[in-house]
């Protein structure tokens, strides 16, 4: 059986890549996808802990994270559509004026 | 002591390869001749003859079509997104085939002391005298059905043409909407079977036609079949590729083998959907006298014929009607069905 | 055998997640992300969590990513016009790498501790993974489960109000 650290390091790498994406990209949808990537890295951590500790709880957390991600996708994308209607752009630098 | 690979005997792997080959070849042949059958059946329904020239009553028509498409010129639009354009047909084709991994297509057979379950992703536990398959089989099928949309969406987007884009958009909205209703229709089935394993669901329907879930859950059966037809974009729900308004929609820009792959994907999806409906609602491979796999094939072919009959009969839906049907009719009905099933199942217990 | 499999899947996951960040075209980013999700689902299967693997494919690849691709197509966003300046890229990269370094550093020094349960492969095969999850979800985690339903309702209402022109 593989050591737990393998999974945790993979998860750390994915999380860091997600963080870099959030900080570097300007396209709101790509940033959104990077956030999903970070959430998934956390999911991997939870499931591997759940497996190595022999408890189901971690997987139930993953279930809740997925629900939150789905809700987030619905509201986030609706926000982007509303923003695009006003500005013809989804560049995050255009949102910083906090007005239309 | 026999040799084990990853905890399973060698015979298991041989049986696995054999099952994969048989299922794959069978689906490919069915797909090839479904195109012929469709032209022939619709032809006769419209008092025409259908293809007659190639071979006896046009029996070689699928081969002729294949050869024609194979030798056609491959056209890639200069403004297309190359990678997505090339990958899209594959993405459309693969999910249609891999759903077959979990569908049980016959009674278990004994070969040389081994019991081989007629289901690709399953094995027979010699010690426990029991068949194990993926215990999330139904969800696996739903997940793969959800992936089918990518092929069409990618094709529509990467072609860089407005008709393709419209087709892709329509199909994305349509498939996501109908997937919900189809999924909720299945929920009532596994509320009765109390399992997501397809082997168990088929086993529960053994012993006579009245044990089929089609009779215990008629509403779920009808809604699931209609939603599946909508999900694989067949008439009367073929808006993504409506010839008269979108000049073939998402596959307008495709030619040659790539077009052939979309064509195959459409028919493979139809075969998959019919096989899933057979497994979930029509008792799978159960039936009297004949061996199990024959019953399975007969039921699947009957459903394919039904699909073609529907195509020959109904005109195409309008887009807003389609959305209304999915969200305002099927979704509430399936939810009601789930609630009703729950109440009845609790009371019966 | 298992470690080779893990290495291949992990390598594909890391490569495709790098592509998510570096692709200029949002659709290509989305496709790479779907690939990453698949790799993670494969790892969940090896971690004896088949239900989570299928849910991963169904919810992330089948629903959330389709929604994202749908929005990209609806707004017809092709290629990002202006990139961030090199300072921002450098700073972002440095922060990300620091984060990674920090995590790995701590991982090298930690040991697995905490309350261990009784779930193992034999039990997952015998009882069934869905049964285990279902039991936990409807007994120990019933209140959070009910709260998520309210969350989803709020999300539906919010999305409709935000995106609809005229309510």
TrEMBL record, chain A:
It is found in: Cell membrane; Membrane. It is a multi-pass membrane protein. It catalyses: a quinone + NADH + 5 H(+)(in) = a quinol + NAD(+) + 4 H(+)(out). Its EC number is 7.1.1.-. Coiled coil: none annotated. Pfam families: Oxidored_q2 (PF00420). Keywords: Cell inner membrane, Cell membrane, Membrane, NAD, Oxidoreductase, Quinone, Translocase, Transmembrane, Transmembrane helix, Transport, Ubiquinone. InterPro entries: NADH_UbQ_OxRdtase_chain4L/K, NUOK/Mnh_C1-like. GO terms for cellular component: NADH dehydrogenase complex; plasma membrane. The chain crosses the membrane at residues 6-24, 31-54, 60-84. One of its GO terms (molecular function) is quinone binding. Signal peptide: none annotated. Gene3D superfamilies: 1.10.287.3510. GO terms for biological process: ATP synthesis coupled electron transport. Its main location: membrane. NCBIfam families: PRK05715.1-2, PRK05715.1-3, PRK05715.1-5. NDH-1 shuttles electrons from NADH, via FMN and iron-sulfur (Fe-S) centers, to quinones in the respiratory chain. The immediate electron acceptor for the enzyme in this species is believed to be ubiquinone. Couples the redox reaction to proton translocation (for every two electrons transferred, four hydrogen ions are translocated across the cytoplasmic membrane), and thus conserves the redox energy in a proton gradient. Belongs to the complex I subunit 4L family. HAMAP family: NDH1_NuoK (MF_01456). NDH-1 is composed of 14 different subunits. Subunits NuoA, H, J, K, L, M, N constitute the membrane sector of the complex. This is NADH-quinone oxidoreductase subunit K. The gene is nuoK.
From TrEMBL, chain B:
It is an enzyme of class 7 (translocase). Its EC number is 7.1.1.-. Its main location: membrane. It catalyses: a quinone + NADH + 5 H(+)(in) = a quinol + NAD(+) + 4 H(+)(out). The chain crosses the membrane at residues 12-36, 83-107, 138-157, 178-198, 210-230, 267-287, 293-313, 325-348. PROSITE patterns: COMPLEX1_ND1_1, COMPLEX1_ND1_2. Keywords: Cell membrane, Membrane, NAD, Oxidoreductase, Quinone, Translocase, Transmembrane, Transmembrane helix, Ubiquinone. One of its GO terms (biological process) is aerobic respiration. NDH-1 is composed of 14 different subunits. Subunits NuoA, H, J, K, L, M, N constitute the membrane sector of the complex. NDH-1 shuttles electrons from NADH, via FMN and iron-sulfur (Fe-S) centers, to quinones in the respiratory chain. The immediate electron acceptor for the enzyme in this species is believed to be ubiquinone. Couples the redox reaction to proton translocation (for every two electrons transferred, four hydrogen ions are translocated across the cytoplasmic membrane), and thus conserves the redox energy in a proton gradient. This subunit may bind ubiquinone. This is NADH-quinone oxidoreductase subunit H. It comes from Geomesophilobacter sediminis.
UniProtKB/TrEMBL annotation, chain C:
Its EC number is 7.1.1.-. Keywords: Cell membrane, Membrane, NAD, Quinone, Transmembrane, Transmembrane helix. The keyword Phosphoprotein does not apply. Its main location: membrane. It is found in: Cell membrane. It is an enzyme of class 7 (translocase). GO terms for cellular component: plasma membrane. Gene3D superfamilies: NADH-ubiquinone/plastoquinone oxidoreductase chain 6, subunit NuoJ. PANTHER family: NADH-UBIQUINONE OXIDOREDUCTASE CHAIN 6. This is NADH-quinone oxidoreductase subunit J.
């Amino acid at each position: 059986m593989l050591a737990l650290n393998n999974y945790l390091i993979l998860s750390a790498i994915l999380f860091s890549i997600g963080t870099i994406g959030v900080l570097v990209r300007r396209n709101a949808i790509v940033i959104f996808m990077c956030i999903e990537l970070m959430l998934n890295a956390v999911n991997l951590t939870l499931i591997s802990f759940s497996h190595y500790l022999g408890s189901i709880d971690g997987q139930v957390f993953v279930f809740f994270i997925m629900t939150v991600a789905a809700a987030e996708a619905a509201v986030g994308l609706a926000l982007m559509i509303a923003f695009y209607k006003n500005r013809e752009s989804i560049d995050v630098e255009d949102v910083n004026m906090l007005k239309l | 002591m026999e040799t084990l690979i990853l905890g399973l005997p060698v015979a298991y792997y041989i049986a696995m390869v054999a099952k994969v080959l048989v299922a794959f070849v069978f689906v490919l042949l069915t797909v090839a001749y479904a195109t012929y059958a469709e032209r022939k059946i619709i032809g006769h329904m419209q008092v025409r003859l259908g293809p007659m020239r190639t071979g006896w009553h046009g029996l070689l028509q699928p081969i002729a079509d294949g050869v024609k498409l194979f030798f056609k010129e491959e056209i890639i639009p200069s403004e297309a997104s190359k990678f997505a354009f090339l990958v899209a047909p594959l993405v459309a084709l693969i999910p249609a085939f891999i759903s077959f991994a979990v569908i049980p297509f016959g009674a278990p057979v004994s070969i040389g002391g081994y019991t081989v379950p007629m289901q690709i992703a399953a094995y027979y536990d010699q010690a426990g005298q029991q068949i194990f398959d993926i215990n999330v089989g139904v969800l696996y099928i739903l997940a793969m059905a959800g992936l089918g949309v990518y092929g069409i969406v990618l094709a529509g987007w990467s072609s860089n043409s407005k008709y393709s884009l419209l087709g892709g958009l329509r199909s994305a909205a349509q498939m996501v909407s109908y997937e919900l209703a189809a999924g909720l229709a299945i929920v009532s089935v596994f509320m009765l079977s109390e399992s997501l394993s397809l082997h168990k669901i088929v086993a529960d329907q053994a012993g006579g036609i009245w044990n089929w879930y089609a009779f215990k859950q008629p509403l779920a059966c009808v809604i699931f079949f209609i939603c599946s037809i909508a999900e694989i974009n067949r008439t009367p729900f073929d808006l993504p590729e409506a010839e008269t308004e979108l000049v073939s929609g998402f596959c307008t820009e495709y030619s040659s083998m790539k077009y052939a792959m979309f064509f195959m994907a459409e028919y493979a999806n139809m075969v998959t959907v019919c096989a899933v409906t057979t497994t979930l609602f029509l008792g799978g491979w159960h039936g009297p006298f004949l061996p199990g796999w024959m019953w399975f094939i007969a039921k699947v072919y009957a459903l394919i014929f039904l699909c073609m009959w529907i195509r020959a009969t109904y005109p195409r839906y309008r887009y807003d009607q389609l959305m209304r049907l999915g969200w305002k009719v099927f979704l509430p009905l399936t939810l009601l069905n789930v609630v009703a099933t729950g109440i009845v199942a609790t009371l019966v217990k | 055998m298992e470690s080779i499999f893990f290495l291949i899947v992990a390598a594909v996951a890391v490569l495709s997640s790098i592509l998510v960040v570096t692709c200029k075209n949002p659709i290509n980013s989305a496709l790479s992300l779907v690939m990453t999700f698949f790799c993670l689902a494969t790892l969940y299967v090896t971690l004896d969590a088949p239900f989570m693997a299928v849910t991963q494919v169904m919810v992330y690849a089948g629903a959330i990513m389709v929604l994202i691709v749908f929005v990209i197509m609806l707004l017809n966003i092709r290629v990002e016009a202006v990139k961030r300046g090199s300072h921002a890229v450098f700073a972002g990269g440095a922060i990300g790498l620091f984060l990674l370094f920090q995590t790995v550093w701590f991982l090298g020094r930690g040991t697995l501790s905490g309350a261990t349960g009784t779930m193992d492969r034999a039990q997952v095969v015998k009882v069934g993974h869905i049964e285990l999850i279902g039991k936990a979800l409807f007994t120990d985690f019933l209140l959070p489960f009910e709260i998520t339903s309210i969350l989803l309702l709020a999300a539906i209402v919010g999305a409709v109000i935000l995106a609809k022109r005229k309510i």
